[in-house]
Specification:
CATH architecture of the largest domain: Alpha-Beta Complex
CATH superfamily of the largest domain: Spore Coat Polysaccharide Biosynthesis Protein SpsA, Chain A
Structural class: alpha/beta
Order of helices and strands: HHEHEEHEEHEHEHHHEHHHHHH
Shape: globular
Distance between the termini: 35 Å
Number of domains: 2
Helix content: 40-55%
Largest sheet: 8 strands, mixed
Number of helices: 15
Length: about 350
């Protein structure tokens, strides 16, 4: 139990700093709402949408077209003209055709279609909605010294909720909890930004060539150039879909397999930590069942520390998503009380990703 308690305490060590960082960034967004902005090309790759996801795509593009950013163009990159469902393209949005080469090919077509006056490339997904200040939040860190790129992240807020979609929400919040002040290990493709100058200077397009994930490739370019990836509080994408158990585990396993290949140190840290957490939890339960009072208190301490961090993750997510306040008021408790369960889910996913033959499975 000792190592698990030490890890739990260490995990809480940076939470106050992270909370202060989020608060200061969100306050700065309000104070700088009228300042001049660099021209942005906001590129959204759409690989295909069936009838069931047409409304979700329309809602996602509508939110991206409604940003309170004074100088940006929305570029929707699709394989061909027929792949964009009728009625989903917002007025004034530009379409870029990228062929059948996949997401990275679409991103490259969006870059080529951007205006010559563009100073910043921003990249978004097509399966979530964003706040009106999302683009301002995403671009804001790029002016800081040493920052090569910025990233937001996703938040699963299923409506109406069910057990497995809420499991996905709490599971995902653990990844979000890795993002904070200073340099970060990764960028997330659904909310990334980089200046055009840096994109060209660091040859990001060359890193994309042959890569499976554009965000991991961009993060590699930043590491090689010794530039940091800044987390941009407020640049959060709300995903409302309701995953089935099969969909959740397939996605989670794939993402962790990609992390194992692209971020091995982070992946190993996660695996070892969860082996220790779950081993201590199991040992504590067994010892408590045998009447060991010390084990009971150690178990309470382990649960309490983990749930405290989970509560802080939910609080910070709500602070960045004021329009989702009612959702967190109703369901945010799961991010606190489900932490012990999600710890085991994480262990299962990490072991599954270790057994994956490749990241495409």
């Amino acid at each position: 139990m000792g190592p698990a308690l030490v890890l739990a305490v260490l995990a809480l060590r940076g939470e106050r700093t992270r909370a202060e960082y989020v608060a200061s960034r969100m306050a700065a967004l309000d104070e700088s709402s009228g300042e001049p902005r660099l021209p942005v090309a906001l590129i959204v790759p759409v690989t295909g949408a069936g009838a069931g996801s047409r409304e979700a795509l329309r809602e996602a593009l509508r939110s991206l077209a409604a940003q309170d950013y004074p100088d940006y163009e929305l570029i929707v990159a699709v394989p061909n003209a027929e792949s964009l469902p009728a009625g989903t393209l917002p007025p004034k949005a530009k379409v870029a055709l990228g062929g059948e080469g996949g997401r990275i090919s679409l991103l490259e077509s969006g870059v080529r279609a951007s205006r010559r006056s563009t100073k910043v490339f921003a990249f978004a997904g097509s399966n979530g909605v964003v706040s009106r200040f999302w683009l301002r939040a995403l671009v804001a860190p790029l002016s800081e010294e040493g920052v090569g790129a910025s990233t937001g992240f996703r938040c699963y807020a299923p409506e109406p909720p069910a057990f497995w979609p809420l499991v996905q929400s709490v599971w995902n919040s653990v990844i979000a909890g890795r993002l904070g002040p200073g340099g970060n290990d990764f960028a997330w493709g659904g909310a990334m930004a980089i200046t055009k100058e840096n994109f060209q200077q660091e040859r990001v397009a060359e890193y994309w060539a042959g890569a499976e994930r554009d965000d991991l490739a961009l993060a590699g370019a930043m590491r090689d150039s010794q530039q940091s990836i800044a987390f941009a509080p407020g640049a959060i994408v709300v995903c409302r879909g309701r995953a089935t158990p099969r969909q959740f585990f397939r996605q989670a396993r794939r993402e962790m397999a990609l992390a194992r290949a692209g971020l091995p140190q982070l992946w190993w840290t996660g695996l070892v930590s969860h082996v220790i957490y779950c081993g201590a939890m199991l040992a504590g339960v067994i010892a408590s069942a045998r009447g060991n009072r010390g084990a009971e208190w150690a178990l309470v301490a382990q649960f309490g520390l983990g749930m405290l961090k989970g509560a802080n993750r939910a609080t910070l997510a709500k602070a960045q998503l004021p329009v989702q306040k009612s959702w967190f008021d109703r369901y945010g408790w799961t991010h606190t009380f489900w932490v012990p369960l999600i710890t085991w889910v994480w262990l299962f996913v990490l072991i599954g990703s270790a057994c994956a033959r490749d990241s495409k499975r």
